[in-house]
Amino acid sequence: MEFQVDRTEFADAVGRAARALPGRTPVPVLGGLLLEADTGRLTVTGFDFEAAVRVEADAEVLTPGRVLVLGRRLLDVCRVLPDGPVCCAQEGSRFTVEADGTRFGLSTLPLAEYPPVPASPAPYGTVGAAAFATAVSQVAVAAGRDDTLPLLTGVQLRFDDGEMTLSASDRYRYAVRRLGWKPEAVAGDGVVEVLLSARRLLDVARSLGRCGDVRIGWEPDGGGGLIGFGGGRTRTALRLLDGRLPAYTSLFDMAGAAVAEVEREGLAEAVRRVAVVAEANSPVRLDFSANGSVRLRAGYGDDVAAQRLAATLNGADAMPVAFNPAYLLDALSSFESPRVRLELLGAGQRALLHAVPGGETAEAGAEAGEHRHLLMSVKELV
């Protein structure tokens, strides 16, 4: 195997494929990146059974071939390579990388022990890359971090005609985002729901955010438990999680709720400010009143902080609620609109946040409910 490739393209391909490398694995060969050189093309692949990432780059291939190289070592080499053409070759059990007088020799891994990389699922539809990246980031904040409950660490994608719905929950909050997508003519009828690792999906969405469109791959029979995402010259296949998130329709029914509106950035800044005196896991209290303000308060005894902001409240003369400040900040940060609407049932009950349409933002003119974030308020007020 021997090829020549531009340093920038090579480093980008290696960097993207390395996202699939496992942090720790009992299978040493999974720490490798598979390099395949064929006529005019270099393909770099990373695989760890849960995700497979393939990235293509233009290359002048002198001798076609395949080689498996320690991924993180190759990534480190790419970071320090000088600009210009890079010459790579396999010499026995060594893989050499040379650029502008700098030469690296890397040991190779046994190619025969590398597991078969799953094929990319068949085309199913497309979605705008930037909109998809935004939607995933908006719901992923509500996914759990406890790997002993894998169901709650996922983002659920629901495909229904021309609408995609993303949702995530860790039992204390529930985020939902809808956006349009374009199904392929062969996509078939019916609703498809899949559950994917929030961390993996967020990484994929961010890496493809500037690709124009994301190509979604899915097999009607389940495709071996995989779903594919492609953009530009990068293709990623993610393995599905088992299970399905609980339905949120009844949770989002806020009949009889008081409705408050407040400037989003101002509220987020006030929460950060007053929370500095709060002990770990202590709530921040918000007292909404019909006189056009909300008072934030945190802390106990002599260590307290308070701030008042302009806000509107309809449906009640007063509405005191309290939230975990980190959860409230995550929810506020997931919106892009200048103002947010909060539907409030009272202390210890559900609170539903919406974007308020208007302004020159990505959510301007959006229907109320396109992105919604449900929080549980704290029962005991500070």
List keywords for this structure.
single chain; 382 residues; alpha+beta; DNA Polymerase III, Chain A, domain 2; 3 domains; 9-stranded antiparallel β-sheet; 6 helices; 26 strands; elongated
How do you describe this structure in short?
The protein has 382 residues and is of the alpha+beta class. 16% of the residues lie in helices and 43% in strands.
Largest sheet: 12 strands, antiparallel
* Shape label: elongated
Fraction in helix? 10-25%
Going by helix content, strand content and strand pairing, the class is: alpha+beta
The CATH architecture name of the largest domain reads Roll
Low-confidence stretches: 359-369
Strand content: 35-45%
> In the CATH hierarchy, what is the superfamily of the largest domain?
DNA Polymerase III, subunit A, domain 2
Radius of gyration: 25 Å
Report on this structure.
The protein is α+β, with helices and mostly antiparallel strands. The protein folds into 3 domains: 2-113, Roll (DNA Polymerase III, Chain A, domain 2); 123-239, DNA Polymerase III, subunit A, domain 2 (DNA Polymerase III, Chain A, domain 2, Roll); 258-376, Roll (DNA Polymerase III, Chain A, domain 2), CATH 3.10.150.10. The chain has 6 helices and 26 strands. It has helices spanning 7-17, 71-80, 129-140, 198-207, 264-274, 325-333, and strands at residues 2-6, 32-38, 41-47, 51-58, 60-63, 65-70, 85-91, 94-99, 102-107, 123-128, 154-160, 163-169, 173-180, 182-183, 192-197, 213-217, 226-231, 234-239, 258-263, 284-289, 293-300, 303-314, 318-323, 339-344, 350-355, 371-376.
